[in-house]
TrEMBL record:
One Gene Ontology term, aspect cellular component: Golgi cisterna membrane
UniProt organism field: Cannabis sativa (Hemp)
PANTHER family tied to this protein: UDP-GLUCURONATE DECARBOXYLASE, UDP-GLUCURONIC ACID DECARBOXYLASE-RELATED
Biased composition (Basic and acidic residues): 372-399
Protein family (similarity comment): Belongs to the NAD(P)-dependent epimerase/dehydratase family. UDP-glucuronic acid decarboxylase subfamily.
Coiled coil (UniProt feature): none
Root EC class: lyase
Keywords: Decarboxylase, Golgi apparatus, Lyase, Membrane, NAD, Transmembrane, Transmembrane helix
Membrane topology, from the record: Single-pass type II membrane protein
Purpose: Catalyzes the NAD-dependent decarboxylation of UDP-glucuronic acid to UDP-xylose. Necessary for the biosynthesis of the core tetrasaccharide in glycosaminoglycan biosynthesis.
Superkingdom: Eukaryota
Phylogenetic classification of the source organism: Eukaryota, Viridiplantae, Streptophyta, Embryophyta, Tracheophyta
Protein name: UDP-glucuronate decarboxylase
């Protein structure tokens, strides 16, 4: 009994001295290990081993942000889908330089960190741009700010000086520029009426030639391009609230046209580069935004009211004060811009806060926040000033999963704190953070 259990060789091993008239079959030697595996049920163990290993690799956490557009799949993207507004193409630089380039499965080998993107922010020394730069730096990206300092200030980004991931170039976007980048946030353009009316020809040049230059750069280096357009493309809207499909009611020859029509042309150029040159683009239509680092005295209603109330001057209300605006805190906008850039949809997307205030209601909130005795002074309305402005943000909610979170009563005190410091030189209260 014992010998049968321990020695089975005689069942399979041909006896060396046994005579056989047939020549030995060579394939028998090959199949012997297989027969052995089958008989001893080793195959079951091998299969269980493979299953455990597969499960282990599948469940291992990926240490990289979800891979969106560097997959090899896109190399064979059907041409008809490439022109669709809702699809996107691979970023050339990501394929060439990023870790993602050689790891299209979305996982990075253990021990290697996610490599940040290289991003240029035109107008990055301005109000919105500098807050965007803060968020990108925080995320670990390398950021290049391109700005001619027409309305922007070095102070807005000075806290990044010395960081090897941060660079700053004094440059006018009306002139061409070549940079190796993965993404371009194109914000360069004076945004307040006081500034864009100061030199209207320069404003429209910035919008048209500047945007052309940046789109040319995006095409050349395969970068994704995001245009910060404006609610002004709706002009004095005949539809309320404004949906992205509304084409607007704009005066092409008015004093604001350098900005309104300039931005409309910038949108046209952006879509033409997308359709005609396969550039990956995104378009944001920004509604009134406020927050720390806004230019003091730039003529925009929130900064005007806050600066006037702090200086104990009467707040200037144009017209009867019944025209409405929506006010978005800057951190909400930056979140929307980043979601748009990283997402899969071209847009355009309205980014704004749908909470609607009349100018008189806004003045009241400023009174509550700064000085209950602040006075209001009425002046005649300016030409082409739209009567109503309120974004419909359904599309951004559905496709970007975005909506503003900071109310006017929460965001305004943060702006007041920053303005107080800059107007009165009072540095006791801390920096101009975006956090609400
Ligand atoms: N803030 C808002 O409420 C709002 C609303 C709608 C649209 N936008 C858009 O968002 C973008 C940023 O607006 P913002 O409020 O930060 O304005 P901002 O004036 O604070 O910033 C604009 C920046 O662009 C720079 N710039 C202007 N012309 C340039 C040129 N030719 N070359 C290089 N740099 C140039 C300025 O120096 C400044 O740093 C603009 O494109 C604006 O049209 C803003």
């Amino acid at each position: 009994m014992t010998s049968e259990l321990t020695f089975r060789g005689h069942e399979t091993q041909p006896m060396a001295d046994t005579y056989s008239p047939k020549p030995p079959k060579p394939w028998l030697a090959v199949t012997r290990p297989i027969r052995y595996i089958l008989r001893e049920q080793r195959l079951t163990f091998v299969l269980i081993g493979i299953a455990i290993a597969t499960l282990g690799f599948t469940l291992l956490p990926s240490n990289q942000a979800p891979q969106r557009y560097s997959s090899a799949i896109f190399d064979s993207f059907p041409a008809e889908l490439e022109s669709s507004h809702l699809t996107h193409r691979p970023v050339y630089n990501e394929r060439r330089f990023g870790i993602q380039n050689w790891n299209s499965g979305g996982k990075i080998p253990l021990g290697l960190k996610r490599k940040g993107k290289r991003i240029v922010v035109t107008g990055g020394a301005g109000f919105v741009g500098s807050h965007l730069v803060d968020r990108l730096m925080e995320r670990g990206d390398s950021v290049i700010v391109v700005d001619n300092f027409f309305t922007g200030r070095k102070e807005n980004v000075m806290h990044h000086f010395g960081n090897p991931r941060f660079e700053m170039i004094r440059h006018d976007v009306v002139e061409p520029l070549l940079l190796e980048v993965d993404q371009i946030y194109h914000l360069a353009c004076p945004a307040s009426p006081v500034h864009y009316k100061f030199n209207p020809v320069k404003t429209i040049k910035t919008n048209v030639v500047g945007t052309l230059n940046m789109l040319g750069l995006a095409k050349r280096v395969g970068a994704r391009f995001l245009l910060t357009s404006t609610s002004e493309v709706y002009g004095d809207p005949l539809q309320h609230p404004q949906v992205e499909t509304y084409w607007g009611n704009v005066n092409p020859i008015g004093v604001r046209s350098c900005y309104d029509e300039g931005k409309r042309t910038a949108e046209t150029l952006t879509m033409d580069y997308h359709r005609g040159a396969d550039v990956e683009v995104r378009i944001a239509r920004i509604f009134n935004t406020y927050g720390p680092r806004m230019c003091i005295d730039d003529g925009r209603v929130v900064s005007n009211f806050v600066a006037q109330a702090l200086r104990k001057e009467p707040m200037t209300v144009y017209g009867d004060g019944k025209q409405t605006r929506s006010f978005q805190y800057v951190s909400d906008l930056v979140e929307g811009l980043m979601r748009l850039m990283e997402g899969e949809h071209v847009g355009p997307f309205n980014l704004g806060n749908p909470g609607e205030f009349t100018m008189l209601e806004l003045a009241k909130v400023v009174q509550e926040t700064i000085d209950p005795d602040a006075k209001i002074e009425h002046r005649p309305n300016t030409e082409d000033d739209p009567h109503k402005r309120k974004p419909d943000i359904t599309k951004a909610k559905e496709q970007l999963g975005w909506e503003p979170k900071v109310s006017l009563r929460k965001g305004l005190p943060l702006m007041v704190k920053d303005f107080r410091q800059r107007i009165f030189g009072d540095h006791k209260e801390g920096g101009s953070s975006t956090t609400a």
